[in-house]
């Protein structure tokens, strides 16, 4: 069976553009439903693939990706949208992508505003994210690559040896962004699932306290709000946010 690799997308549909940044073990596919919804409503939607993602080798994320590389990609994506003559640029990020979406809102003048879904900001520990990545890696090795149990175990030992230091780098990036939350003066959308098992749902409330311009939206749902049972309501709320900013 041939497995089609996920690809970045650019849905050109108007002078206002929304940059969509995906999660740590996700791809641009997690943003596709929201992207198509925005396109139908007259917004251009752009979801790049973060370095190391979208392959059938989870180690690519840990070996090729980095917070520095992903931040550079975020800035390059915004430059691309400027070159495409987009007059308004918004940035939203899911989970890992939330870190760089927030940094863009904090630092880049070209960004009108934006927000986050399932943000890891203010999370005290990343154990759940670690466990989820190990589960994701095991699934890829068994289902996509069809490796034997011995081969899977060998691969997972390599992932296990690298992931803690890598998550520490992500945590550092997260803390740096969190430290500047109070400086945000632009509208800031916060979407959080109340039954999120990957990040602490209560952390969203802490972020909302820091960002005086924030709009907190809680959903009776899990982590990946862009594709789970909350996605229709999320899409509606994001559109309303865009229309008013």
TrEMBL record:
Single GO term (MF): carboxylic ester hydrolase activity
Residues forming the catalytic site: 95 (nucleophile), 196 (charge relay system), 223 (charge relay system)
Residues covered by the Serine aminopeptidase S33 domain: 17-221
Pfam family, one: Hydrolase_4
UniProt xrefs under SUPFAM superfamilies: alpha/beta-Hydrolases
PANTHER family the record matches: PHOSPHOLIPASE-RELATED
Protein name, entry field: Carboxylesterase
Organism of derivation: Companilactobacillus halodurans
């Amino acid at each position: 069976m041939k497995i089609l690799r996920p690809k970045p997308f650019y849905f050109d549909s108007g002078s206002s553009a929304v940059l969509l940044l995906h999660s740590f073990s996700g791809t641009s596919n997690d943003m596709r439903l929201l992207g198509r919804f925005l396109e139908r409503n007259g917004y251009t939607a752009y979801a790049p693939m973060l370095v190391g993602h979208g392959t059938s080798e989870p180690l690519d994320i840990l070996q090729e990706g980095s917070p520095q590389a992903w931040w550079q990609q975020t800035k390059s994506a915004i430059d691309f949208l400027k070159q495409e003559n987009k007059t308004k640029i918004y940035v939203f990020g899911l989970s890992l992508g939330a870190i760089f979406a927030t940094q863009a809102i904090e630092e880049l003048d070209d960004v009108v505003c934006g927000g986050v879904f399932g943000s890891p900001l203010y999370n005290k520990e990343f154990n759940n994210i670690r466990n989820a990545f190990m589960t994701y890696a095991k699934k890829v090795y068994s289902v996509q690559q069809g490796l034997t149990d011995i081969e899977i175990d060998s691969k997972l030992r390599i992932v296990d040896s690298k992931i803690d230091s890598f998550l520490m780098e992500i945590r550092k990036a997260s803390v740096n962004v969190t430290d500047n939350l109070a400086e945000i003066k632009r509208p800031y959308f916060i979407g959080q699932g109340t039954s999120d098992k990957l990040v602490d749902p209560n952390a969203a409330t802490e972020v909302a306290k820091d960002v005086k311009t924030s709009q907190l939206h809680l959903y009776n749902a899990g982590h990946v709000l862009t594709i789970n049972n909350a996605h229709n309501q999320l899409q509606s709320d994001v559109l309303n946010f865009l229309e008013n900013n």
